[in-house]
Amino acid sequence: MNITIVTVGKLKEKYLKQGISEYVKRLGAYAKLDIIELPDEKAPEVLSDSEMEQVKDKEGERILSKISPDHHVIALAIQGKMKSSEELADNLDKLATYGKSKVAFVIGGSLGLSDEVMKRANDTLSFSKMTFPHQLMRLILVEQIYRAFRINRGEPYHK
């Protein structure tokens, strides 16, 4: 399976880079994983609603440029579907079974995802009703993808 994580914003924190690197290494036994890091749109701290939409639209164009027509797109969004680790594992297993071997997870910038990205998404995923920094979501997502492959292979992994 080929998994791509398309994410907005530069990862600066060393501890997050180390954690992500560890899970990417572990995932190498199960899948090919690419992380595409896109720049976030520069904007002032206080924005009007229309300015927020413009920022999301510009980031959305960058995201969509990295997604091919044959990608099965899963957008991470607060309003997405909450799933257990087992349900995520089952989803990935079904995608592989039915020939959807290219999966793209999308993590938006601090303002979220544009309407166009949400329309392109085949599925949505929420890890919580809480808001997390998008940089931290990268680590959480990579760990959950790794966990999904372990679950699908019946291999032990801490609960």
Automatic annotation (TrEMBL):
GO molecular function: rRNA (pseudouridine-N3-)-methyltransferase activity
The name this protein goes by in its record: Ribosomal RNA large subunit methyltransferase H
Keyword Cytoplasm attributed: yes
Gene from which the chain derives: rlmH
HAMAP family with a match to the protein in the record: 23SrRNA_methyltr_H (MF_00658)
EC number(s) on file: 2.1.1.177
Enzyme class, spelled out: transferase
Superkingdom assignment: Bacteria
